[in-house]
Amino acid sequence: MVSLAVDALVMVPIVGCQRSGTTLVAEILGSHPHSLLIEEGPPATRWYRAALGSASSAHVAAKFRLCCRLARKDYREPANRVGWSGSVRGGISHVVLKAPNLTYSSEAIGSVWPSAPIIYLQRDIRAVVASALSLSRVPIADNQLRLIRDSDDMTERLAEELEVLERLGTDVAPHLKMALVAKMKMSLADQFRQHGLQVLQVKYESLVAEPEIEIPRMLSHVGLQPADECFRHETVLVGSGPGDTVRERSIDTRSVQSWETKLTPRQADQIWDLVGDFMESMGYSK
């Protein structure tokens, strides 16, 4: 098996808001026999910042090899995808990058990876909020607001939502803060298109209800042939993913309406009052 150069690989960024289904989509596509899944985390962040920045090619390659070595632990049969040194096997053509924070990097991706097919997740914001709040030890909303405010471009593009957040005050309820963050992160798909990138928007609810339709649509978008492994990722991957995701769990609809028991009726109504217009534009109803 032959080691493949980084620039010969198709990068497939999975973007959108955390807790919107990015992990599931990444696992589905990462199970394809010709793809390699690289999960979000400090090593991946250092690699893609280097790749999308001004780092030398040798520096970028070294960080990429580290990500590939770490990816071995996610597969039942890692030798078919990555060597012990981090070299990508010759049968691998695509790198599936589960990196929702790249939602803010459309310009850089368009410049460095102009042929990267983007998968952009959508999900009922009430479900996103409920899932995010269940991870009490992870301050998702605060982390995302820091990233947004650190970017002059994002601060300008999302000025209206940031102004709403300011009006809510410093003691804004966590579920409302997260709802606004989710709206902001789900509203940037056109930024990728403006930088010449092809974007496929995938609705989480449709994916889990009709995988036989949505999975082929995703595979076609990223340039991969149909593969049975993508319908049973739990037989390809092992361990746990970000947010305590159990990789051995098959595709199901159990999480679609779980927000109804995790949020109070008042919280759900408040979220709808805050971002309901945007949710309706995505096809959701109260």
Kindly describe this structure.
This protein has 14 helices and seven strands. With 286 residues, the chain is α/β, with parallel strands linked by helices. The chain has a single domain, classed as Rossmann fold (3-Layer(aba) Sandwich). A hairpin with a 3-residue loop joins strand 6 (240-241) and strand 7. Helix 2 (42-51) packs antiparallel against helix 3, helix 6 (140-149) packs across helix 9 (174-186) and helix 9 (174-186) packs parallel to helix 14 (265-281). The longest helix has 17 residues, at 265-281. The protein starts with 9 loop residues before the first strand and ends in a 5-residue tail after the last helix.
Topology:
Elements: E1 10-15, H1 22-30, E2 35-38, H2 42-51, H3 57-71, E3 94-98, H4 106-112, E4 118-122, H5 125-134, H6 140-149, H7 152-157, H8 159-168, H9 174-186, H10 189-194, E5 199-203, H11 204-209, H12 211-222, E6 240-241, E7 245-246, H13 259-262, H14 265-281
Parallel strand pairs: 1-3, 1-4, 2-3, 4-5
Antiparallel strand pairs: 6-7
